[in-house]
Amino acid sequence: MVSALYAVLGALLLIKFSFDVVRLRMQYRVSYGDGGFSELQSAIRIHGNAVEYIPIALILLLFMEMNGALTWMVHVCGILLIAGRLMHYYGFQHRLFRWRRSGMSATWCALLLMAIANIWYMPWELVFSLR
């Protein structure tokens, strides 16, 4: 299954972002919240934003593959998702709004393409079956 590759990459991103938050919490000795440290605020938002988008995107990617989308379509959506998350991270880390905006745009495009593909490839005869 192709979608498993992107699930692994998404999980690795979430782990990296989580470690960044933990490292900064330890560095600044902050147990709750961000302690007013902008670097920690950014790390928390990078992680939180990834948690908000990656899980639903991976579910859509898996369903897209299960519904019979072509392999190259699954790769395009998976690459767009991971690239978008990396661009967002880079832009947030370096305060480059264009990178953040481009990363969010790539993420939204991936989500939209996956939603459309799932509608297109959905086995409608089974969805509305009365059995």
Structure write-up:
The chain has 131 residues and is mainly alpha-helical. It is 82% helix and 0% strand. Helix 1 runs parallel beside helix 3, helix 2 packs antiparallel against helix 3 and helix 2 packs parallel to helix 4.
How would you state the average pLDDT, rounded? 95
The class by helix and strand makeup works out as mainly alpha
- How large, in whole angstroms, is the Cα Rg? 17 Å
If classified by CATH, what would the architecture be? Up-down Bundle
Report low-confidence residues grouped into runs of 5 or more.
none
Give a quick account of the main beta sheet: strands, pairing sense, barrel closure: none
The CATH fourth-level homologous superfamily: Membrane associated eicosanoid/glutathione metabolism-like domain
CATH class category name: Mainly Alpha
What portion of residues belong to β-strands?
under 5%
Order of helices and strands: HHHHH
Integer count of domains? 1
Q: How much helicity do the residues have?
A: over 70%
In CATH, the topology is named Four Helix Bundle (Hemerythrin (Met), subunit A)
Shape: elongated
Secondary structure tally: strands: 0
Summed up, the helix count is 5
Could you tell me how far the N terminus lies from the C terminus, measured between alpha carbons in angstroms?
29 Å
